[in-house]
Amino acid sequence: xxxxxxxxxxxxxxxxxxxxxxxxxxxxxxxxxxxxxxxxxxxxxxxxxxxxxxxxxxxxxxxxxxxxxxxxxxxxxxxxxxxxxxxxxxxxxxxxxxxxxxxxxxxxxxxxxxxxxxxxxxxxxxxxxxxxxxxxxxxxxxxxxxxxxxxxxxxxxxxxxxxxxxxxxxxxxxxxxxxxxxxxxxxxxxxxxxxxxxxxxxxxxxxxxxxxxxxxxxxxxxxxxxxxxxxxxxxxxxxxxxxxxxxxxxxxxxxxxxxxxxxxxxxxxxxxxxxxxxxxxxxxxxxxxxxxxxxxxxxxxxxxxxxxxxxxxxxxxxxxxxxxxxxxxxxxxxxxxxxxxxxxxxxxxxxxxxxxxxxxxxxxxxxxxxxxxxxxxxxxxxxxxxxxxxxxxxxxxxxx
Length: 400
What we know:
Blueprint: H1 2-32, H2 34-47, H3 53-70, H4 83-122, H5 125-138, H6 144-150, H7 153-158, H8 168-183, E1 192-193, E2 196-197, H9 201-218, H10 223-235, H11 244-270, H12 278-313, H13 320-338, H14 344-351
Antiparallel strand pairs: 1-2
């Protein structure tokens, strides 16, 4: 057994020596293949002057192959064969690889830009979002204007009849990001493209706030959050401050709030017990009176917003149908607030001159003088809640 073991070890060592020798022999053979080495060198030199993506890649790939096969070959005197060429390759291969990668990136971006702009022209929003997202991922500084486009599309689509809400989540994401970037002073050159381009930063901020507010209000049913953005659209130095439907949209929020309070008021009135002790009755009357005050205060905020919408809509005869529709809605609100139609025109004219209330501030109750604890104003009858306002012939405004 000992003899066999020693023989096995000897065989393994011999195999290793033979293998190593074989590798050395192969390496020596490669160095000896002068024709193959010179052919590869020729390929490298010829392609190194070809300023194309293929030329750069061929040069880099062939250069790496040359260094692997011939980079350590020596002549009979022990000198490195083609030492200058080897050093040139070591310096240039990384350069050619970077150039190649840059050309690949530029080629891909060119294709994406074409898809992006073709998509805008064709209103192919899936294509616009797919290509726009890739452009922003590849170079967010260079392609930041695409961010504004992606943050604008959902407004027009949501305002269609029937509404199209497919891209609203992305629109909200990019509209919010665009506002943050604009307010941070980041450059947008230009401020969007095509129909989704804005004349200046203030105008873009106004429209982006309008977009977010409208989508939150009428798609996501998040009117409390949406009205904050709509209000910002009215305060910006933007064309959005002159669009009637921005104010109608704000008014619709207050209508919903008013209708909720009307329901609460009706429930309080219904819950009164004529047989309750006097102190309980008085407390209930006071509660009803306070709730009536909140209905009144909310109605007046709605009328304030609608007054502005009506005034702006009446400035253009093309908005006649829209102006008529929102005026009828305002009359409903006025009737709920005052219990009569008289005085509507005078009230609207005055309400239009009052500053638009900031929705983030608490609504103050409005208690009418004639309302007393003994005889509170009658709650609106069931079914008298106002509608949220018509969208007939809606004037949408323009971005330029």
